[in-house]
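Colleagues,

For the teaching module next term, I've prepared a clean inverse folding example: a structure given as tokens, and then the sequence designed for it. I'd like students to try predicting residues themselves before seeing the answer, so please don't circulate the second half yet.
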């Protein structure tokens, strides 16, 4: 497992946090450690997914993200 910290823009409330957490939890190979307004900390299995795919999943949910 590798660790990843994402900076996430556009989050402003608990609903945003829940939406990002849900998106990350649905992503294969991802284990969510913490999601708060503006960031997410997680672990992922690089044999299952990549940091770019995780970032894209968050962006597809409507939140611009960067590693």
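(Answer key — instructors only)
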């Amino acid at each position: 497992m590798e660790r990843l910290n994402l900076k996430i823009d556009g989050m402003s409330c608990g609903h945003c946090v829940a939406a990002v957490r849900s998106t990350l939890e649905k992503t294969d190979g991802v284990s969510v450690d913490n999601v708060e307004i503006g960031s997410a900390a997680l672990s992922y299995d690089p044999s299952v997914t990549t940091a770019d795919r995780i970032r894209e999943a968050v962006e597809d949910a409507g939140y611009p993200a960067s590693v």
